[in-house]
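Write out a sequence, fold above all:
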Amino acid sequence: MQTILDSADQPAHDAFVEKKSEFIGDACHIDSLDEALAFVQTIRDQHPKARHVAYAAVCGGSDGRLAERMSDDGEPSGTASKPILDVLRANEMTDCVVAVTRYFGGILLGSGGLIRAYSTGASIAVKAANKAKIVPCCEYQVTLDYPQLGSFQNLLASVDGEQADAQYTDRIVLSIIVPQEQSQKFKSRIIETFNATVTPRQTGTSNRPVRY
């Protein structure tokens, strides 16, 4: 199950010092790798005196595969962006960029020290962010009589569903989204609650971010 950063939030931010070098981690939701590059540029603009701004980004491709991009920004190969990318992979992140800015403190950290420091910088940025799981969902259309609405809304809440649209005429037609893992429970409870007088019609499937 993939995880994204909440797109409604500001970029997440945290920092720490290792042997007089300051490492600043920033994590942001993105919808494309171009947005990732733009975000990294804003970080560079904020820290013009920083020695390095390494980053890694992961974004869902249109074909369902993940696209990745990263840069060590002058650090030894494999010591900066790869540890950042490893953090994103370990957390099953997508649609996310993490930049770790380094202000050099005059003490060399060595390859192992750099790997640990950039990994920590990425980890604290991801930890500081509000995250959401990508949950596969079933989409339904449900037609109700007005007196049935209250009971249906309670039922929908009990299966973590949400209402996407509603049309009110002589009856109510709702478009709803229910997590796939709850769909069988949802259909069973519909039958029990309304004595088989209400029949949900599945109209498709989608993915929905669920904050945690």
Observations:
- Strands lie at 3-5, 12-18, 21-29, 52-60, 66-71, 96-103, 131-144, 162-168, 172-179, 201-211.
- The mean pLDDT is 90.
- The first helix runs from residue 33 to 46.
